[in-house]
Amino acid sequence: xxxxIGWYVxxxxxxxxxxxxxxxxxxxxxxxxxxxxxxxxxxxxAVLDLPDDRPLGDAAFDGRDGAADRPExxxxxxxxxxxxxxxxxxxxxxxxxxDPALLVVDVSVEVALFARLLSVPTLxxxxxxxxxxxxxxxxxxxxxxxLAPFPEALDGGGVPEWVRAKTVxxxxxxxxxxxxxxxxxxxxxxxxxxxxxxxxxALAEAARSVPDRDWHVLGPVSGSGAIPDNLHLHGWVPDVxxxxxxxxxxxxxxxxxxxxxxxxxxxxxxxxPEARAYGEQTEKAAALARLGAAxxxxxxxxxxxxPGLIQAGLALDPAVIGGLHSPTAVAECAAGIxxxxxxxxxx
Length: 347
Prior knowledge:
Elements: E1 5-9, H1 14-24, E2 31-35, E3 46-49, H2 82-98, E4 102-106, H3 109-117, E5 122-125, H4 134-142, E6 145-148, H5 161-165, E7 167-169, E8 186-190, E9 198-199, H6 200-209, E10 215-218, E11 221-222, E12 231-235, H7 240-245, E13 247-252, H8 256-264, E14 269-271, H9 280-291, E15 295-296, H10 306-314, H11 318-322, H12 329-343
Parallel strand pairs: 1-2, 1-4, 2-3, 4-5, 5-6, 6-7, 8-10, 8-13, 9-11, 10-12, 13-14, 14-15
Helix pairs in contact: 3-4
């Protein structure tokens, strides 16, 4: 009997669930998604919904418990938290009941170490940036293999060699490439989840500084003020890729979603990385700049800087960033996960 796998998803980002869904669709063995998934679309997925372990009322939870005294191998281990206790108990019960061949952990130091204690092999997802703090290194050490959901060329310069050697670089785990429609003169600005979003006055200044092009803004925007005729605020849209396909230049942060979209559609890209723990966006953006795959500007530019930045972005060779995309990445990642799980099958 073929044993299934589990895929633990971090509860703070829809991108983790989307990644699991994309790969699970290509797996030849059963896959159960474990996580706090209430409010997310889990249609067609086998799910083990877990109790929420976050501090009550803490909307800005960053994965740390703030304790003065905690084991050095952990980020988050609050005492007397019923949600955390129930969460770990449910994971243990699922392991005992289903005997999984492998658990993909995307992402949690604590779940990776807990799985090791439960004698379950793990494939731990390693996000971009340099994560050399002790908890991350211990989670990496506990794993059978590590999975990087980005190309090796975008890895951080400070990553230890033993971590690199243990890593499978899967590339961007996105869906199929959208047929690239003929690009217009539009500038498309994308703000994703988890960032600060756009500011209406700042966007208006940018659009006025390059008045001969239409600006289309996708995602959350706050603030108020006069909006020039060439600025179009769309908010959340279900077809981000279709909007981007019509862009002459894509402007966005350094998160995996936006960078993967730029690569999948070979779009000239102006990257505005936001500050994140472990340099997740800034290190990735620096690698893009070194490769000539993007123009990078940290922080939102002053109005006077926009004409030059737009000109530099339009001068990029889109084949460079397009070369970072692999249309077979998802299928190859699934095949690799299946092979790793098979290596732990009992004969």
